[in-house]
Amino acid sequence: MDELRKIDLNLLLTLHALLMEKHVTRAAVRLHRSQPAVSHALALLRAHFDDPLLVRKGGKMLLTERAQTLLPALDGALSELNDLVGSPEFDPLTARRTFRIAMSDYAARIVLPSLVSYLRKAAPGFNLAISQASREMMLTQLDDGEID
After folding, report:
1. Is a pLDDT exceeding 80 seen at residue 2?
2. What dotted CATH number matches 4-85?
3. Which of 27, 91, 120, 127 has its CB 3.0 to 4.6 Å from that of 98, i.e. a possible disulfide?
């Protein structure tokens, strides 16, 4: 863990883009950053890893041996970090939630039977709290967070 304190983790995203693109400008576009900012990040990464990482040869940028060994590990680490901080997979069969819905009498007669039938099969942990209201009241309730 002490090694992680020595590097800005955002630099790892930049490193990944650089190694994938093998081109500073394309990496910058991919990251929505300026080319000078990515060039500066590359200089920091080169110093940190004590390796050029990318070298120009015949008009192309090639990965150094160290960069080639870093890429698969970086792919896996970033994927795991993305899973860690990302939203969990949504599974309607196991999810539990109550939806608060407002609708007119007519909509309730037309929509509710098929909606309830579908939800019983597709999302058995879902509950519906139905209220009937005018359009104006529904908009107010929606703005106030009283209905979904």
Report:
1. no
2. 1.10.10.10
3. 127
Q: How far is CA 142 from CA 111, 127, 145, in A?
A: 19, 18, 5
Domain 97-143: give its CATH code. 3.40.190.10
Question: Where does CATH 3.40.190.10 sit in the chain?
Answer: 97-143
Q: Where in the chain is the domain with CATH 1.10.10.10?
A: 4-85
**Cα 121 → chain centroid:** 29
Percent of the chain with pLDDT over 90: 64
**Side-chain half-sphere CA neighbours of 60 within 13 A:** 6
Return the residue matching tokens 């209201």: 133
**For residues 45 and 77, what is the distance between their CA atoms, to the nearest angstrom?**
17
Copy the structure tokens of residue 45: 């990464």
Task: Yes or no: say if 100 and 131 are a contact pair by the CB < 8 Å rule.
Answer: yes
- Name residue 32's amino acid: H
Q: Name the pTM for this structure.
A: 0.60
The tens digit of pLDDT for each residue in 48-98 reads: 999 999 999 988 999 999 999 999 999 999 999 988 888 777 888 888 889
